[in-house]
Amino acid sequence: MADVVQGILASGFSELPVSAHDASAVAALPPIHTDPFDRLLVAQALSGPFRLLTADAMVAKYSDLVQLVL
Q: Strand 66-68 to strand 52-54: parallel, antiparallel, or no bridges (unpaired)?
């Protein structure tokens, strides 16, 4: 597991904490996806704004900031 974390950090990614603002933004999302963690990631991307990469086509329906990658 430590190798995964080291690889992510070495790639230039950084950790993103979950804020109360992010958590509350989940309630404003349309009910496109039911997974609470995925909805939190979308809320963070929209609040950032950040680009969210996903392999889940349902998650990609939220915004242009959410990009489907296969």
A: parallel
pLDDT of residue 9: 85
Instruction: Check if the beta carbon of residue 62 is closer than 8 Å to that of residue 46.
Output: yes
Instruction: Specify the 3-state DSSP secondary structure of 35.
Output: coil
The confidence score (pLDDT) of residue 12 equals 87
Spatial CB neighbours of 36, under 8 Å, sequence gap ≥ 6 = 26
32/42 Cα distance (integer angstroms):
11
DSSP β-bridge partners for residue 68: 54
Residue where the block lists tokens 């996903």: 54
Which tens digits make up the pLDDT trace of 32-43?
999 999 999 999
Q: What angle do CA 22, 6, 46 make, to 5 degrees?
A: 20
